[in-house]
């Protein structure tokens, strides 16, 4: 089963930006007035390329066969048995093969998110004789314990580690990891550059 992990905030804001751009493109087309419209379109195109690269494309994809890290300009696939170690800091860093490193762009762990996770892990002090906290169901308690003191990045890092250890226990033969340039990213960049050239030349 394929699971895709992203920064939800960045992903949502990216789609909000695309909606904003779509409205402005319609407006620029309906009220076309030559050079100023072309320049505005080129600026929107350049900004949209940046938003796509840093907000919409990055993803961590977990499949049965291995881990795929989609970064702005490259995609790297690492079979589970090739994963050597997983270290979670600000980003998730996966070492594999012969001292190779895959730095996943998402999910990231900010200082604020880590502080919130530590507050969740701290024991809650009960004041007075009456409980002010709602009673959680067993499933909610289990979820709270699983995430106590952990950020989203920590949790995803654990999933990657568990999959890799399971593959090593089963002694699965690891096919070679491979990386490729992101054709979609270069297509978006090429379109943005074309818009800028048109705005400058015409």
UniProtKB/TrEMBL annotation:
Limits of the Low molecular weight protein antigen 6 PH domain: 57-86
Domain of life where this protein originates: Bacteria
InterPro entries according to UniProt: CFP-6_PH
Keyword Membrane attached: yes
UniProt cross-references to Pfam families, sorted A to Z: bPH_6
Transcription keyword on record: no
Key words, A-Z: Membrane, Transmembrane, Transmembrane helix
Residues passing through the membrane, by range: 9-26, 38-56, 179-201
Region feature (Disordered): 114-135
Protein name per UniProt: PH domain-containing protein
